[in-house]
Amino acid sequence: MNSFNIFALQTKRRDMSKKTIIGFIPIVFGLIIVTAFAYQSNFINLDVSIPKSLSNISIDNDHFIFNKNGEKLKLYTIEDENRTTDKWQLSQFDEVEKGNKDGIEFHFKKDFSGTLIYGLYAYEPMDYPIAVYFKKHEKIENGKAFINIREQLSGVYDLALWKSRKKGRLAYRVLDNKNNIIFNKSISFIVNEGFTIVPDIVWGPFLSIQTENKITLKFATNLKCTPIVSVNNINYDLKESKNHEITIIDLDDGKQYDYSIQIGDIIHKSTLKTAPKTGNQAKFTFAFSSDSRGGTLKGETNTKGHNADIIKKMATLAAFKKVDFWQFTGDMIDGYKIDRDEMELEYTNWLTSISPFMHSIPLNVGMGNHEVLMNVFGDPKDYMSIDGFPYDERSGESLFASFYANPINGPDSEDGSKYDPDYKSIDFPSYKENVYSYVYANMAMIVLNSNYWYSPNHNIIPLIGGNAHGYVMDNQLEWLKSEIAKFEKDGNIQHIFVSIHTPAFPNGGHSKNDMWYNGNNEVRPWIAGKKVDKGIIERRDEILDILVNKSEKFRVLLTGDEHNYSRLIVNQETKRYPENWTATKLKLKRPFVQIVNGAAGAPYYAQETLPWTPSVKKFSSQYALVLFNIEGNKIEVEVINPNTLELIEKVEL
Ligand SMILES: [Fe+2]
C-alpha cells in the first residue's frame, strides 16, 4: 500500500480509445452543480416534460401540480424541505480539507457544530487497509475544524510514519451535534514545509461485471486526477475525473491477476480474478444478502443511510470466506429522498464502509424500494410520491446506475409495451444496470427489479400512475422469459438463480405487500390512466410459471425486503392463494426454493403466519450472510451470522 512505483516491467501503455473508460458519469462530486441546476429546472423550469405514462400531473401557476380528485397538490421542493429538516448532502463534504503548516483544516460547506473523530492508516502491509481512530477528537464549530497532526499524531501516535515518510493517510468521521454519524472519509497528505492534501481514493476500488475475460473497476477520488490502473503489466491511463471506471479486457479465464492503481506517487495494490470458463465444474462460493439500510437512529447502526456496524462485519466475513462474488439485492440505503445530493451521501457512506474489504471481491447489486429518488406532491407525510422525473436525471434508476457498475444486458425500459402511451417519446426510466444477468462457471444469475418506476404509495397509483412495490412489469417479464429460454438451451449452464428484492411469498414483515398484499390482486401498475391487465398475484404466478414450469435449471429465488432469513420450499401442495380466489391457480410441475435474506442490518421483523407457512423450513431473525457453495450439480447453503459467526443453518438443496 502507498509504496513506490514498482512497475518497471510495464510492457505497453494503452490509452482509452479501446473502450475501457466509461467516464463514470461524474455524479458523485462532479455533477453537483449540474444536478442542483437540474433540481431547479425540475421545479421551476417548465420545459421539463411530464412523462405521458403518468396522469393528473400538470403545470399550474409555475408549479408542477398533482390533481388528486380536485385537490391541487404542489410539487414539494428541496427549498420547502430545507425549512423543515436537517439535511446532509455529499456536496457539503466535497473538497473541504486544506493543509496548513501543522495539520489539516476542515471547512465544511454547511454551518453546523459537531465532532470530528479521526485516525491514521498505519504504514504496514495490510490486505484490508483500514484506519484506527485516535483517542481524542476535535470540535466542529460553524462548520469548521482543525486537526493538528504535528502535535497530536506524532511520536508514539505516528502510525503512518508521516514524519519520516513525508506523507500519510487519515480517516475522519463527522458527527452532528447529537452524535449521529453523518459521514466517513479518508484523505492523503504530503508533508513539506506544511501539510498538503493530495489526490487519493475515497471509496473503492470495486470490482464488477466479472466475466471470463473482462472485469470492471470503479472508484472515486477526493480531487480530480488521472490515475493509472495497471493489470498484467499493462498500464491504462484514466482520464481526468473524480469518478473512475475502467473495464479491463483480454484477460484469461479463471485467472488471478495483481493490479494496482497509481495516483501521483501513491500506489494501491490488490488482486482480481476473472470468472472461470463457462461450464466449469470446480467448486466456488458466492455470497447473498440485502437490506443494509439504517438500523436505528444512533451510532454505527445508522451511519447516515445504512447500518455500517453490520455491513462491515458482513464484508469481513465475505472476505474471510474468500467468496468469488457477492450478490446484494436492494435496500442498501435509507433513500426515499427528493434530493439527489442527499442520496449521494448515503450511497457514498455505504461504499466507504465496505471499501476496505471489497477490492478483490466482485460486487453485483440490485435495486430495492429504498433506492427510490422521488418527486413528492403535497405534504411528504402523505406519501404522494412517484419515481423522480425527468427519468434520465432524477429517477432512482439513474442515480443507482451512476454509483454501481452492473451489466447492461437487460431490457431497455417499459417503453414499447402495449401500454406505452406514445411510442415516440421516452415515458419510463431505464432498466440499464438495474435488470441484468451474468454467468459464473456453471451458473447463471438473473437480477430483476420489482421496484422499477416505483410509486411508493400503492393507494394513489390509480390516480397518479406508476408501479407498485413487488410488481415485475411486462417488458421485464418478457426479458426474463427470453433469458430463461437462453440459459435452458446453454449446455454449459446447470443452475439458474434469480434475484429480486421482493419475495414471491413473504414470511415476516411484508405480508401487506411484496407479491401478496394480504391476498389483494387488485394492486398493479397504472399507465397513462389505465390499469394493466394482470394483478400482483397473477403476475407472481406468471413469474413462477416461467421459472418453475418452463425451466429445469432454475434453483433458487433469492430475495430480501424482509429483515430476516427464511428458506421456503414451495410445491404444488403449498397453499398459495387467498380464500376467495376464483381465478386460475397455477399448477407447479416441481418444487422450488425461495430464500429471503434481508438480514444485512435493517430493523428486524418477526415471523408471520401465512397460507404457505407450513412449507417454511427455516426462519431466523439473526443477521445473516448466505453463502452458496456450488460444485458441479451440488448446491449447499451455508448461513452465518456475521455478528457472532454462529452457523444458522447448512443444508444441501
Ligand atoms: Fe425493501
Tell me about this structure:
The chain has a domain at 284-652: 4-Layer Sandwich (Purple Acid Phosphatase, chain A, domain 2). Strand 35 (634-640) and strand 36 (647-652) form a beta hairpin. Strands 25-26-27-30-32-31-33 form a 7-stranded mixed sheet, covered by helices on one side. The chain has a 6-stranded mixed sheet with strand order 22-21-20-34-35-36, covered by helices on one side. Strands 1-16-15-18-19 form a 5-stranded mixed sheet, with no helix packed on it. It is globular and about 80 Å long. It is α+β, with helices and mostly antiparallel strands and 653 residues long. Bound molecules: fe (ii) ion.
Features:
653 residues, alpha+beta, Purple Acid Phosphatase, chain A, domain 2, six-stranded mixed sheet, 36 strands, binds fe (ii) ion
Low-pLDDT segments, ≥5 res: 1-44
Query: What class, by secondary structure content?
Result: alpha+beta
Number of helices: 11
CATH class of the domain at 284-652: Alpha Beta
Summarize the structure.
The chain is of the alpha+beta class and 653 residues long.
Please describe the topology of this protein:
Layout lengths: L11 E3 L17 H12 L13 E4 L2 E6 L2 E6 L1 H5 L14 E3 L4 E4 L6 E7 L16 E4 L3 E4 L1 H4 L9 H4 L1 E9 L5 E11 L3 E4 L2 E8 L6 E11 L2 E4 L2 E4 L3 E8 L7 E8 L2 E8 L10 E6 L18 H13 L4 E5 L10 H15 L8 E4 L7 E4 L7 E3 L3 H4 L1 H8 L32 E5 L2 E5 L13 H4 L9 H16 L5 E5 L26 E2 L2 E2 L4 H14 L4 E6 L5 E6 L21 E6 L18 E5 L4 E7 L2 E7 L6 E6 L1
Parallel strand pairs: 1-16, 20-21, 21-22, 26-27, 27-30, 30-32
Antiparallel strand pairs: 2-3, 3-4, 4-23, 5-6, 6-9, 7-8, 7-10, 10-11, 11-12, 13-14, 14-17, 15-16, 15-18, 18-19, 20-34, 23-24, 25-26, 28-29, 31-32, 31-33, 34-35, 35-36
Helix pairs in contact: 5-6, 10-11
The chain binds fe (ii) ion.
Fe (ii) ion binds next to loops.
